[in-house]
Design goal:
This protein is α+β, with helices and mostly antiparallel strands and 99 residues long. The protein has a domain of 62 residues. Helices cover 41% and strands 27% of the residues. It has a five-stranded antiparallel sheet. It is elongated. The N and C termini lie far apart (49 Å).
Length: 99
C-alpha cells in the first residue's frame, strides 16, 4: 500500500469516528434540553418537569400554552425568566408512530 492510501484511509477512519462522536453528543444535548411537562401551576407561572423532578418558573405568557405531557425546550436568557417553546404537544406525542 502506498503512503497516500494509508493517509487517506486513516483520515477516513478518524472522520467517521469524529462524526459518530458529534452525532452522539448532539443527541445527548437534545435530550438534555428537552423536557416533559408533568404538571403546570398557572398561578405561580411554573411547570414540573419529569427529567429534573423540579419546578421551573417561566414567563406567564408561556405557561398559558403548556399542558401535561408536552415536550418543551427552555431558553434561558441572560436576564429575566426562562422562555418555553413547545416542541410537541402531548397529543402529538401520543399519536407519534415512534411509540
Amino acid at each position: 500500500m502506498t503512503i497516500s492510501k494509508v493517509v487517506t484511509i486513516s483520515v477516513a477512519v478518524v472522520s467517521l469516528g469524529a462524526s459518530a462522536a458529534v452525532a452522539a453528543s448532539l443527541t445527548e444535548q437534545m435530550r438534555a434540553e428537552r423536557m416533559t411537562v408533568v404538571r403546570v401551576d398557572r398561578a405561580q407561572h411554573r411547570f414540573l418537569c419529569a427529567e429534573h423532578r423540579r419546578w421551573t418558573r417561566i414567563e406567564g405568557t408561556d405557561v398559558a400554552v403548556l399542558a401535561s405531557g408536552d415536550i418543551v425546550t427552555v431558553q434561558r436568557p441572560a436576564a429575566g425568566l426562562p422562555r418555553v417553546k413547545v416542541v410537541r404537544t402531548a397529543a402529538e406525542e401520543l399519536a407519534s408512530p415512534e411509540r
